[in-house]
From TrEMBL:
CDD domains: ACT_F4HF-DF, FMT_core_Formyl-FH4-Hydrolase_C. It catalyses: (6R)-10-formyltetrahydrofolate + H2O = (6S)-5,6,7,8-tetrahydrofolate + formate + H(+). Gene3D superfamilies: 3.30.70.260, Formyl transferase, N-terminal domain (3.40.50.170). Belongs to the PurU family. It comes from Rhodococcoides yunnanense. Residues 87-263 form the Formyl transferase N-terminal domain. Its EC number is 3.5.1.10. One of its GO terms (molecular function) is formyltetrahydrofolate deformylase activity. This is Formyltetrahydrofolate deformylase. The active site is at residue 226.
């Protein structure tokens, strides 16, 4: 009986890191299945992702504790993850294209995570969620109830033991407090290459400017609105024949693809945060 694990780490560049990690895994009867690393020559940082197979008697706590001495020697930040899929809560408003795509990929078993609930400030997408067998929680938001609504969200994150929150065109701005509480475990999809065409009717803005490409950006949520570390971007070529409706249709395709890729890469532990940037082992 064997189990799959993933080790991700970051530290300063220095000789011997890969050798030490490989020796540790060998000494613990682990067989490396996939290995990727990146040396950032700009600031001297080192990043590594290694997936490996271990015996059934190995567990996360054991590996984490055994690795601590080596990690201290190289001043590493590190995480071991097992084969269980992260639990994902999706937040939506009225537009369902991203939710529909996430549900399809989840049912097809290629999302990388397990959808556990859908939260919305409107009732519009309840039928879509419940048809997929997902709990749908309606949390209305008004200026006077925003704080209570966000606390309800955090309560749901705890109740469903959520590992990742996905804002799938959730049209409410989260407070700084909530953004900090969800640091590194909340992904948003934005309807453009940031920071262009913010606000209402982005595709009408794009049409008025005569754009030739439609894009979408998936990024981590931070207190700085739509300025979190970028995980994935998609672009689709368009021309003068695209009216605002066609632009929105094409744009929604880009949004769905960028978001699903970002979710999968996060769930597969392929994204390492590096300040305002990310290292993606795709």
């Amino acid at each position: 009986m064997t189990e799959n694990f993933t080790l991700t780490l970051s530290c300063g560049r220095r000789p011997g890191i890969v050798r030490a990690v490989s020796a540790f895994l060998f000494d613990n009867d682990c067989d490396i299945a996939e290995h990727q690393q990146f040396d950032d020559s700009m600031d001297g940082s080192f990043f590594l992702r290694t997936s490996f197979v271990a015996s059934g008697t190995t567990d996360i706590e054991q590996l984490t504790e055994s690795f601590r001495e080596l990690a201290d020697r190289f001043a590493m930040s590190y995480t071991f993850n097992g084969c269980s899929q992260p639990r994902v809560l999706v937040m939506v408003s009225k537009m369902g294209h991203c939710l529909n795509d996430l549900i399809f990929r989840w049912r097809s078993k290629n999302l990388g995570g397990e959808l556990v609930a859908v939260v919305s400030n409107h009732e519009v997408l309840r039928p879509m969620a419940e048809a997929a067998g997902l709990p749908f929680v309606h949390v209305p938001v008004t200026p006077g109830t925003k704080a209570e609504a966000e606390q309800r969200l955090l309560d749901l994150v705890a109740e469903y033991e959520v590992d990742l929150v996905v804002l799938a065109r959730y049209m409410q701005v989260l407070s700084d407090k909530t953004c900090r509480a969800l640091h590194g475990k909340a992904i948003n999809i934005h309807h453009s290459f940031l920071p262009g065409f913010k606000g209402a009717k982005p595709y009408h803005q794009a049409f008025d400017r005569g754009v030739k490409q439609v894009g979408a950006t998936a990024h981590y949520v931070t207190p700085d609105l739509d300025e979190g570390p970028i995980i994935e971007q998609q672009v689709i070529r368009i021309d003068h024949t695209h009216d605002p409706f066609r632009l929105a249709t094409v744009g929604q395709d880009a949004e769905a693809l960028a978001l699903s890729r970002a979710v999968r890469w996060h769930c597969e532990n392929r994204v390492l945060l590096h300040g305002h940037r990310t290292v993606i082992f795709s």
